[in-house]
Design brief:
2 domains; single chain; mainly alpha; three-stranded antiparallel beta sheet
C-alpha cells in the first residue's frame, strides 16, 4: 500500500491488487493507515474542519466522510477534559462519532452503512492517503487532544453573550427584505463589535501584571473566486486591526489579531459574503455560452470592487468609533502597541510571506456594481 501512495506502484495496478485481495487482509491495513495519517496531521497543527476541507478540495469530495470517521477514531483515545472545546466543536460540526464496531472491519462496515461500492471505497481511501501524505505541518493554533490549552490572559476571550447578540443581529440583517431594517440591524452589530474591541484595548492597556497577547485563527475560503474573496477578508481584517496571510494551496487564510477583533472579522466576513453574493446575483448580466466569459470577469470585478469599497467603509466606521470613544487620545498608543504585537505574531509564524499582487479589473460594469453593492451593504 505504501508503494501505491508513494507512487512506486502504478495506481491502477495497485488498486486492482487491493480490490481482489481478501478483505480480512486489506481492511485492517487501510483503516490503520487512514486513522494514523489523520492523527499524525492533528499532532502537526491541523484541525478537523481544516483537514476535512483540504481533502475535499484536493481529492474526491466523497472522501470527506472518511476524515470525520478518522477524527472520531482519534478522539476516542482522550477523555473529554483533555480535548480543547474548540476542537470538540469542530468534531461535532463534522458529525464525528464512532459508529463502527472494530477498526479491522471498518471498510466492510462502511460499504454496508453507506451503501458504498467496495472498489470505489478503496479508491477513495487511497486517494485520501495520497492527499494526507502531501500535507506539511502547520502552526498549531488550537491545542490538539491530549495537550492542555494555555490559559488566556484577561480580556482575550470574547463574551459569548455578546457574540450571540451580534450573530442574531447579522442574521436578521441578511434575512430581511427591507434595506432600512437591515441597516439598523447591522449598524447595531457593528456598534457592539467596535465598543467591545475598544473597551478590551483600554482594559488590556491598563492591566497590571497581566499579559494579553494576539493569536490567530484560520478562516476557510471556498471556490469559486477564492482570491477575490480573500481580498474581502483582508479588507475586513485591516479595518479591524488584524493581518491576513492567504494560503491558496490549502484554501484558508490565517488571521492574526486580538480575540475581540478576530471574532469581529470572522462574523463580518461571513455576513458580507452573503450580502455580496445576493447583490451580485441581482446585478450580473445574462449567462449562456456566449456570455460565460463575460459573466466570469463581471463576477471577479464585482467582488474586487466590493472588497475595496467595503474596506473604505469599515475604515471610516473604525475611525468614527475611535473618535467617539472615551479618552480617545489615551487609546492611540495602546492601539499602536497592539498593532506592533500583531505584526510580530504574523512575522514569527510566517517569516517568508510574499505580498500579493494587485487585482486587474477587466469588467468596469462589475467593478462599479460591486462598489455600489458595498455602499448598500448593511454595515456602517
Amino acid at each position: 500500500m505504501a508503494g501505491i501512495v508513494g507512487g512506486r506502484i502504478a495506481y491502477e495496478s495497485g488498486l486492482d491488487l487491493l480490490t481482489v485481495a481478501p478483505a480480512a487482509e486489506v481492511d485492517p491495513v487501510l483503516a490503520g493507515a487512514l486513522f494514523d495519517g489523520v492523527a499524525r496531521l492533528f499532532r502537526a497543527g491541523w484541525q478537523p474542519v481544516e483537514l476535512h476541507r483540504v481533502v475535499a478540495r484536493r481529492g474526491d469530495p466523497a472522501a470527506a466522510p472518511l476524515i470525520a470517521d478518522a477524527t472520531a477514531a482519534h478522539l476516542r483515545h482522550f477523555k473529554p477534559r483533555a480535548v480543547d472545546a474548540r476542537w470538540r466543536e469542530q468534531a461535532g460540526e463534522l458529525g464525528a462519532k464512532v459508529w463502527w464496531g472494530a477498526d479491522a472491519t471498518y471498510l466492510t462496515e462502511v460499504t454496508r452503512h453507506r451503501r458504498a461500492d467496495r472498489v470505489t471505497l478503496i479508491d477513495a481511501v487511497l486517494g485520501t492517503l495520497r492527499v494526507l501524505a502531501t500535507l506539511p505541518p502547520i502552526e498549531t493554533l488550537v491545542p490538539p487532544p491530549g495537550q492542555v490549552a494555555r490559559v488566556a490572559g484577561a480580556g482575550t476571550r470574547t463574551d459569548n453573550a455578546l457574540l450571540n447578540r451580534v450573530r442574531a443581529l447579522l442574521a436578521k440583517a441578511e434575512s430581511t427584505t427591507f434595506p432600512a431594517e437591515a441597516e439598523a440591524f447591522s449598524a447595531k452589530a457593528q456598534e457592539l463589535i467596535s465598543k467591545h474591541s475598544l473597551d478590551e484595548a483600554v482594559l488590556a492597556g491598563g492591566a497590571d501584571g497581566i499579559t494579553v497577547t494576539p493569536h490567530a485563527r484560520r478562516i476557510g475560503i471556498d471556490h469559486p473566486y477564492e482570491s477575490e474573496k480573500a481580498s474581502l477578508l483582508d479588507a475586513v481584517a485591516r479595518a479591524n486591526r488584524c493581518h491576513v496571510v492567504w494560503s491558496p494551496e490549502f484554501g484558508f487564510a490565517t488571521v492574526f489579531g486580538f480575540e475581540a477583533d478576530l471574532a469581529a472579522v470572522d462574523l463580518l466576513q461571513a455576513s458580507l459574503l452573503v450580502q455580496a453574493h445576493r447583490a451580485m446575483s441581482r446585478a450580473e448580466p445574462p449567462g449562456g455560452k456566449a456570455g460565460r466569459a463575460r459573466l466570469k470577469t463581471f463576477r471577479q470585478s464585482f467582488l474586487v470592487g466590493y472588497a475595496v469599497r467595503i474596506g473604505e467603509r469599515l475604515a471610516e466606521a473604525d475611525r468614527a468609533a475611535l473618535a467617539g470613544a472615551r479618552d480617545a487620545a489615551s487609546l492611540l498608543p495602546v492601539l499602536a502597541s497592539r498593532e506592533v504585537q500583531v505584526k510580530e505574531a504574523r512575522d514569527k509564524a510566517f517569516p517568508r510571506t510574499v505580498r500579493g499582487r494587485g487585482f486587474r479589473v477587466d469588467n468596469e460594469e462589475g467593478w462599479e456594481s460591486g462598489r455600489s453593492a458595498a455602499d448598500q451593504a448593511t454595515l456602517h
